[in-house]
Amino acid sequence: MKLIELRGHEKPVNFVKFNQDGDLLFSGAAEKRVNVWRNHTFERIGSYKTQSAVKALDVTDDSQYLITGSLEGTLQVFLVDGGQSIGFYKTKYKCKYLELSQGNEYLLVLFESYDSQANNLVGIYKFKDFLQALKNANQKKIPDDSIPMYKTFNLNYTTNKIRYGYLNKCLYVGTTNGKLIKLDPEGKVILEIDAHQGETLSISYSKDYSLIATSGNDGAKFWDPSTLKCIRFIKQQVQMNSVAISPLITGETEDVKYHCIMGGGLPARESAGSKAGGYVIHLCNIMYGEDLGTISGCFGPINHLVFQPDGRGFVSAGEEGIIRCYRFDGTYWESETFQ
């Protein structure tokens, strides 16, 4: 296992994201900056100065636009090439998560109210209209609610994550009380199950959307996206903040790997004075439901994990502000243990 550490943030790194081509890596932290790195050389090639600390980000399929969201409610769009800010929109809610739909037609945003109301609001914008409104404002402040939402609906639970499913035909929601919910595009519940003890912390997919992975306080589970039937449960001793499925699981190449990675650990305030924080990355076999090994070296909770697009490595985002890029060596491809 080869490791390269990227140190470009001073605060906890919340999110890492590859563009569709896989040549750029974007990282957002609890600070007013997004960094972009060249994937193959690991050099930082630029930074984007945001209005507030970054909670979530996404990039368009053509790598033309970068969108960021913050807990202060600011949505901001940048030109990827050059780093120019097109504009920002200050909403009256906290932005917990955002992502673009497949095809980039819609911008999905998970909002949370500042008042005592615990439930969350989902807002869906037409991305072209949202982008045009920012351009028309010409860097001036846009009044609240002046950019209309294409769709909006309330959720009955406090939510950690909401994501588009295959071809945007449905939405999947992970809640703070451990539920996994499947919604239609209008926000109506199709299926609702108890997924985890405690919170459902993350939702991710296999490359072909044939498998859903969720992580929580009890480990990671893998689901049939149509029926939400649990296919595999890999239990861990500490909470798993993130899980990612290898892109090689689809069998498009000769090197088929039914593997996933997961990581998390006890929050820093709970692990004080304890040697067992659980700050390791688990490499697991989904088919057999077992750990193949652990990768140590992190000294704080792991906030986000993502596989390299070619499946030959992965990237972790740490609470200590470090991005770690791992590359599998020959043992991973030759040893029967990792088949």
UniProtKB/TrEMBL annotation:
WD repeats lie at residues 6-47. Pfam families: WD40. One of its GO terms (cellular component) is eukaryotic translation initiation factor 3 complex, eIF3m. It is found in: Cytoplasm. GO terms for biological process: formation of cytoplasmic translation initiation complex. One of its GO terms (molecular function) is translation initiation factor activity. Coiled coil: none annotated. The keyword Cytoplasm applies. InterPro entries: eIF3i, WD40/YVTN_repeat-like_dom_sf, WD40_repeat_dom_sf, WD40_rpt. Component of the eukaryotic translation initiation factor 3 (eIF-3) complex. Belongs to the WD repeat STRAP family. Component of the eukaryotic translation initiation factor 3 (eIF-3) complex, which is involved in protein synthesis of a specialized repertoire of mRNAs and, together with other initiation factors, stimulates binding of mRNA and methionyl-tRNAi to the 40S ribosome. The eIF-3 complex specifically targets and initiates translation of a subset of mRNAs involved in cell proliferation. This is Eukaryotic translation initiation factor 3 subunit I. It comes from Tetrahymena thermophila (strain SB210). The lineage of its organism: Eukaryota, Sar, Alveolata, Ciliophora, Intramacronucleata.
